[in-house]
Amino acid sequence: MMNITKSSNPVFKEKVFNRDYMAQSDVMTVSGTMNKTSILLLLVVASAVFTWNKFFDAIAFNPESGMATVAPWLIVGGIGGFIAVLVTVFRPQSSGISAPIYAIFEGLFLGGISAIFEMQYGGIVVRAVALTLAVFVIMLFLYRSGAIKVTQKFRMGIFAATGGIALVYLFSFIGGFFGMDTSFLHGSSNLSIGISLFVVAIAALNLILDFSFIEKASAQGAPKYMEWYGAFGLMVTLIWLYLEILRLLSKLASRD
Length: 256
Hints:
By secondary structure, the protein is mainly alpha-helical. It has one domain. The chain has nine helices and no strands. Helix 2 packs antiparallel against helix 3, helix 2 crosses helix 9 and helix 8 runs antiparallel to helix 9 (226-254).
């Protein structure tokens, strides 16, 4: 039988399934996980609106002050979100607290980043949000209809692709400090746009693995706290997908 604990999403680790918890009567459900996903999404949006407003309030007085105003919030959001990820991954039992904290910090980061892109390319954020929601609905339909089967080969393929993307981004980040040309990744060339399309596709396929994990974990009677953990994993993928779509749209807009 396929091991439900194998997923390319790094937050879904086998160790979170402790048999001692499986006997509990209060177990994970799909509906409970979706409810908690909605809560996390609301927290992300609420905190994103905060930094978004900070940015545009600042440039209303001084068009060049936006970045300086939101920079501290970007740093706080990025570092705080990273710490919350580590806490959730290594102690999933605390995900009922750490997952909402992650959502708040990540929202601070996303609001600032989104505002910066919006200032450069008007209307890009609305399009990115709409496309992210559309991809989510399409992937959920494909999963529920059985059009995409989650086999072990499928899992391993997405896992390998996701890991490869992470390594390329890491090398690009490090190489930037040594003057390496990363325009192939961050520019607006056909190659760069093609890479972005590929990354968006892999992020979207990670949603399929998340859906499978949540459904099978619920069917096997995972502990109740796994609803928060599953919702957290789904939010990680959705935020990644949104950021990649935002980057892709910005590349296309810069060519106009």
